[in-house]
Automatic annotation (TrEMBL):
<keyword id="KW-0046">Antibiotic resistance</keyword>
<dbReference type="GO" id="GO:0071555">
    <property type="term" value="P:cell wall organization"/>
</dbReference>
<dbReference type="InterPro" id="IPR050515">
    <property type="entry name" value="Beta-lactam/transpept"/>
</dbReference>
<keyword id="KW-0732">Signal</keyword>
<dbReference type="GO" id="GO:0046677">
    <property type="term" value="P:response to antibiotic"/>
</dbReference>
<dbReference type="GO" id="GO:0008800">
    <property type="term" value="F:beta-lactamase activity"/>
</dbReference>
<keyword id="KW-0378">Hydrolase</keyword>
<dbReference type="InterPro" id="IPR012338">
    <property type="entry name" value="Beta-lactam/transpept-like"/>
</dbReference>
<dbReference type="GO" id="GO:0005886">
    <property type="term" value="C:plasma membrane"/>
</dbReference>
<dbReference type="InterPro" id="IPR001460">
    <property type="entry name" value="PCN-bd_Tpept"/>
</dbReference>
<protein>
    <recommendedName>
        <fullName>beta-lactamase</fullName>
        <ecNumber>3.5.2.6</ecNumber>
    </recommendedName>
</protein>
<dbReference type="GO" id="GO:0008658">
    <property type="term" value="F:penicillin binding"/>
</dbReference>
<dbReference type="InterPro" id="IPR036138">
    <property type="entry name" value="PBP_dimer_sf"/>
</dbReference>
<comment type="similarity">
    <text>Belongs to the class-D beta-lactamase family.</text>
</comment>
<feature type="domain" description="Penicillin-binding protein transpeptidase">
    <location>
        <begin position="216"/>
        <end position="520"/>
    </location>
</feature>
<dbReference type="Pfam" id="PF00905">
    <property type="entry name" value="Transpeptidase"/>
</dbReference>
Length: 529
């Protein structure tokens, strides 16, 4: 090779080397590339944002009762073998999926694993294995946003800004930590929501319902203020996995306390109260087991002849014929007006977007039909109401004052426990006199002592109430399904609690609704709730 060619080749090599050096210099001095390189060595992980909880009337938690942990999994530290037994099936699948990951990640575990040398952080578990009032409180979606019930109605307040703590991890090319991660604190500003429920009363009601009911509802009011202490719907569902119940039998996602049903004889105290107010209590009726109205026959339950009955006996024996005749004496306008004052036909609104069904109160024009009015007088026909409405009705009749059942109190500062914004405005309207309320309590005490409500009797105190068996017009295997009600209070002389029990769409329930009332009332009495 000639010298000239050697010099040319050497010059070319020097030129290429110079170009590479210049390119490297340009790359190192370019801020965009520097930022990308830095980003590749920094991993930012987010801890779950704090969500506000629900509290009972005494400030006890109704949600957030459990704790799980977010464990920091770092590549090359044996996460799969050390943590496999500490997490659920979804966590085990995540461990397998990320077994060759080149960056740290969080794994939800069921216990504190810091003793294994693994960093972890506690996080609240929204719903426990035995959730409370799931139909009322509702559930959240996969992103932690309220999807149903009060969770949805108060999502903005419970979520706040959605901000939470972050963990900044400096890692090398293999994803291992170069130094201790830095935690940056941020709070969502979420607030809690305080309900009128009592955790103890709710648990007692749910325990009784689970033991004695297949479908239905229990509503408990504190009689003096009409605050809802328990609201139960059966069957229940798991709010941590609502999808599992979407197609389950007996519609477990349905909040039966908020749905409207045929009422039946629990409506009869309304006519009794109207008669007491009007001074029309002297009616005596001879019941042959049926009553004829303009050629239509209306039968008492089972066609049983009750003989000669007055108001007290008619309530005790639940005589349909008597209340048809009493309704004719009182007139449709008087009875319907009182029913409307007692909340029939009106939804109970918790928020602008969350309310009970309104049920149905027939218009006065519809009650000009003698047959329709006869049905109305013993709670049949078009009349529909929710268990919450029936609780409000009875509560008003035994106190004289209608107070809409209250579910909400206020938002709550979860750090200090201080109440923030009131969520309900109390209103009270006198609907019957104190004398009428007192007389009606004694009449309904007779139903428990001597009548159809005898299974509601309590060993240590008195109770008062009314049974109801409402026809639904629906059949199963040729047998009509019925709604079995009991609406009662205890003690009868000065009620502390108003309890409504509904077993819907039943043929022959294992336990009467009156017996369920008694079981719950005895529990409340025994633990001094």
């Amino acid at each position: 090779m000639s010298g000239r060619r050697v010099v040319a080749l050497y010059a070319l090599l020097v030129g290429c080397f110079a170009a590479v050096v210049c390119r490297l210099y340009w790359l190192c001095s370019n801020p965009a590339y520097a930022a990308r390189a830095a980003a590749q060595s920094v991993v930012t992980l987010r801890l779950p944002a704090r969500r506000g909880n629900f509290y009972d009337c005494e400030g006890h938690l109704l949600t957030g009762l459990g704790t799980k942990w977010e464990a920091l999994c770092v590549p090359g530290e044996g996460n799969y073998t050390r943590l496999f037994s500490c997490t659920d099936a979804a966590g085990q699948a995540l461990l397998y999926q990320k077994r060759n990951a080149l960056a740290p990640f969080f794994l939800e575990v069921e216990q504190d694993v810091s003793a294994l040398g693994i960093s972890c952080w506690p996080v609240s578990v929204r719903f426990s294995a035995a959730p409370l009032a799931e139909h009322l409180i509702g559930y959240v979606d996969g992103d932690g946003k309220g999807a149903a019930g009060l969770e949805a109605a108060f999502d903005a307040a419970l979520s706040g800004t959605g901000e939470g703590d972050t963990l900044t991890c400096l890692v090398n090319a293999q994803g291992k930590l170069r130094e201790t991660p830095e935690q940056t604190h941020a709070d969502s500003g979420a607030v809690g929501v305080q309900l009128t429920l009592s955790r103890d009363v709710q648990r007692a009601a749910e325990a009784v319902a689970a033991r004695m009911m297949t479908t239905g509802s229990i509503v408990v009011l504190e009689t003096a203020g009409a605050e809802v202490r328990a609201c139960v719907s059966v069957p229940g569902y798991d709010p941590a996995d609502p999808a599992a119940s979407l197609n389950a039998p007996d519609s477990p996602m349905l909040n039966r306390a908020f749905q409207s049903y045929a009422v039946g004889s629990v409506f009869k105290p309304v006519l009794a109260a109207a008669a007491l107010e009007a001074g029309e209590t002297g009616l005596v009726y001879h019941c042959p087991g049926w009553c004829e109205v303009d050629g239509q026959i209306f039968r008492c339950a089972g066609g049983v002849a009750h003989g000669e009955v007055d108001l007290a006996a008619a309530l005790e024996k639940s005589c349909n014929g008597y209340f048809i005749r009493l309704g004719q004496t009182l007139g449709a306008e008087r009875v319907r007006t009182l029913a409307e004052q007692l909340g029939f036909g009106q939804a109970v609104e918790l928020t602008d977007s969350f309310r009970t069904a309104a049920g149905k109160l027939p218009e006065l024009a519809a009650l000009t039909s003698s047959g329709a009015y006869a049905n109305f007088c013993f709670g049949q026909g078009e009349l529909l109401a929710t268990p919450v409405q029936i609780a409000g009705m009875l509560n008003a009749l035994v106190t004289g004052m209608y107070r809409e059942p209250l579910f909400l109190r206020n938002t709550l500062d979860e750090t200090t426990g201080e109440p923030l914004t009131p969520l309900a405005h109390r209103r009270a309207e006198r609907v019957v006199s104190e004398g009428t309320a007192s007389a009606l309590r004694m009449l309904l005490a007779g139903v428990v002592e001597n009548g159809t409500g005898h299974e509601a009797a309590l060993p240590e105190t008195t109770a008062a109430g009314k049974t109801g068996t409402a026809q639904t017009g629906q059949f199963r295997d040729g047998v009509e399904l019925k709604n079995n009600w009991f609406a009662g209070v205890f003690p009868a002389e000065k009620p502390q609690y108003t309890i409504v029990v509904l077993q819907d769409a039943q043929t022959v329930p294992a336990h009467s609704s009156a017996a369920i009332f008694a079981a719950l009332a005895e529990m409340l009495e025994n633990f001094g709730a």
